[in-house]
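Figure 6 in text form: structure in, sequence out.
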């Protein structure tokens, strides 16, 4: 039985931030990670440019967390977009803001930031145990399967930061949910978030696979997006779709406005011009400047196309796409569901185990891509670590 002052289980962004907060408060910290290395999902996210946070008014930023905004408010107020920028700069990773307000490290990768972060944690005395998989508790002791066999660890305080239930090959397999549920802790079922949309294309759409869908307005269930997507063999992928994933997951139809910057009357006026001997596809291209991707979508879901210019304009401005719902849970960028808020106090401690804190994607919240996910993980990890460090008389 090893005895430690502070234990963090999970070495993703939330867990590492909790370890940093505990170490900064003078606690001796052990981080247990099931995978051979730390931050695997963070590194994967950084392959396409590490979106750390978002530069926008705090009220708008907070609203992106929907019904979880209020429970997350204190954490995001304490460590929000500006604090994330300052933190990255403190690791020697200056940031810049893109045209859409997304904030990236200048290196555009996660690996330099993660290396600097790991070095700082090591200098602070944080100890890392790799390939230590948490299997639950035995009384107050945490149990682990390790390369050396079963181990138990008695900790003064513990932070759980085991991630959600997507990308299991990177370590987030959601296996912890059964452990906590067996303890009587309420768990909201896992559901895909920020996931691709499945569509059963006809054969003529194969020519468009891999092509970007740009310059459209997408809407579903009261949500709107002007982001982009890519047409794949399975359906639609990309930030524009991810922003609508909650509504699409709940069965809302997807509607596209193929010409969002034109009024319906303007579209109808262009279509009313004589087309002569042109094919309809050429008429659409010349009159409306519809690119091949938009034209293909209109033919896929809009036929039979009406002859009346006004009716055709209405279809172009409101094209309904038939879909089959979101892709598999394990392929989603993030997950909804997790430890329900009533199971936690304001410190993010479990009510039935007040020396155990929960952070990151284990919590029941979701947010779109664009910096919200990572900021939420960092903020809740820091909050849980600082609150755990404030627990008096908990040295093991």
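Output sequence:
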């Amino acid at each position: 039985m090893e005895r430690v002052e502070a234990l963090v289980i999970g070495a993703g962004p939330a867990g590492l931030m909790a370890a940093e907060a505990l170490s900064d408060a003078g606690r001796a910290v052990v981080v247990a990670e099931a995978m051979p290395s730390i931050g695997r999902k963070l590194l994967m996210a950084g392959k396409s440019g590490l979106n750390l946070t978002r530069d926008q008014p705090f009220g708008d930023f907070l609203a992106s967390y929907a019904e979880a905004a209020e429970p997350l408010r204190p954490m995001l107020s304490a460590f929000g977009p500006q604090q994330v920028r300052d933190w990255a700069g403190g690791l020697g990773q200056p940031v810049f803001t893109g045209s859409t307000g997304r904030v990236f490290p200048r290196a555009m990768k996660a690996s330099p930031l993660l290396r600097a972060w790991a070095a700082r944690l090591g200098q602070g005395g944080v100890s890392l145990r790799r390939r230590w998989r948490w299997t639950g508790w035995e009384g107050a002791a945490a149990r682990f399967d390790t390369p050396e066999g079963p181990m138990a660890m008695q900790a003064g305080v513990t932070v759980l930061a085991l991630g959600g239930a997507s990308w299991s090959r990177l370590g987030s397999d959601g296996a912890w949910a059964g452990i906590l549920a067996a303890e009587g802790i309420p768990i909201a079922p896992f559901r895909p978030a920020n996931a691709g949309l499945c569509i059963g294309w006809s054969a003529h759409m194969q020519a468009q696979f891999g092509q970007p869908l740009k310059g459209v307005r997408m809407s579903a269930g009261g949500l709107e997006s002007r982001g982009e997507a890519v047409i794949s063999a399975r359906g639609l992928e990309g930030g524009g779709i991810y922003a609508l994933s909650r509504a699409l997951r709940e069965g809302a139809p997807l509607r596209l406005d193929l010409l969002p910057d034109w009024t319906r009357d303007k579209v109808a006026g262009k279509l009313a011009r004589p087309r002569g001997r042109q094919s309809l596809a050429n008429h659409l291209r010349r009159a409306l400047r519809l690119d091949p991707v938009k034209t293909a979508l209109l033919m896929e879901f809009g036929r039979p196309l009406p002859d009346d210019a006004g009716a055709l304009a209405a279809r172009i401005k409101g094209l309904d796409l038939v879909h089959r719902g979101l892709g598999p849970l394990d392929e989603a960028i993030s997950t909804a569901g997790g430890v329900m808020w009533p199971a936690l106090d304001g410190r993010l401690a479990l009510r039935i185990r007040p020396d155990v804190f929960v952070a990151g994607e284990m919590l029941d919240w979701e947010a779109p891509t664009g910096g919200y996910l990572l900021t939420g993980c960092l903020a809740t990890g820091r909050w849980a670590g600082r609150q755990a460090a404030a627990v008096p008389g908990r040295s093991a």
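Caption detail: The chain has 14 helices and 21 strands.
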